[in-house]
Amino acid sequence: MNTADIISMVMWPLAVMTVIHRTVILAFNGAVTNDFLPIYTAAVNFINYTDVYLGNFNWTDPHYLYPPSGTLMIAPLGYLDYDLARRLYIVINAIGILIAAYYLLKMFGYGLKSVAMPITIFAMFSTETVSNTLIYTNINGLIFLAQVLFLKFLLERRLWWAGVPMGLTIAIKPILAPLLIFPFIKKQWQPFAASFGIPLVLTAIAWPLSKDPGRFVRETVPYLAESRDYFNSAISGNAVYYGLPDWMVLGLRGLFAVITLTSLWLLYRYYRDDELFFLCTASGVILTAQFLLGSLGQMYYSMLIFPLLMTVVMKRSVMRNWPAWLAAYGFLTFDMWYSVPWRQTGEALQFLRTTLGWSLLLIVVCTVLVNRYLDARKAGTLDQGLDPPYIRDDVEYAGVPTKYRTPPAP
User: Transmembrane ranges (predicted)?
Assistant: First the structure.
């Protein structure tokens, strides 16, 4: 029995029991925060042709924020008993996360029998983002699956199919929409057909079937553009909570916008030929920036950064340093940092750890890339890319399936 077999023997029971605990125990138990109740209520009201958009945005209870197209998609839940519908929703999202983990690992050359599989499953289900997605019962698990499928189809040149998971998520919430920049810069128009066609068709069907679709446009859309001061780890959310001046908010947003654009330019200029590395790294940078700079960033959105974290197995990864994983701890940990002897410090760490983690991650990625650029320019090797010699001289695609390899541009 080799080392990998021993690790697999240890990790599979831990992974399986952690999945069961998070799904069947913690999630079925539920919590004070219940993201599913407004979804279920909207589904029931939709099929009964009564008002769907009933939320009072002055309250801090979870609100129903899906557009009419999303309401149509979740409507079948309204035909089920509440407890059955909620448990089914939890299980579907847990299965979605497991399928996404499988395809993500396959993209990097690892299969079910690899030691990476139980380690990845255990790590994912130990995080806050997966745990609270299931406990609070929201749709992030399926959004994560859609993200992985979108990237997978782009890599496999199944461009028509790439638009399907994107279109289904846009029909519910457009959190993945910024990733359409990838087919755009390559002038691949096929993904856009389903990405916009699916939500348009679903909206056309749902609009006449809804009692109050106009309220989504009049009331919900303006609310989505606001920065609330609770459960919001974006810069603007912390600014409202702590009463920061507008100039500071603008300055911080501007600074991290520059950091993000610098990283994306260097990734596109020097790494776009390595499509797996480029797509997974750039998608993580784009989505992290969206969470941090947008009007609403919640900690459990961090599931969508998993593809970037997975690049650590690649030799040219920007995640091969300890500050990157200190950042990951900030936005992934399930630990609570409230402190009895140091109350104010503990509360600040609890409220800000996600914001600091996202911020540090963007800083680390940019710093690594800029340092590589400066070193390569000094050495006069920019024409060979940014990788230092100890990376460039190694096998660049070790462990990556042939179908995901892209030869360097001539």
Answer: 6-28, 88-104, 134-154, 160-185, 192-210, 247-268, 322-340, 355-374
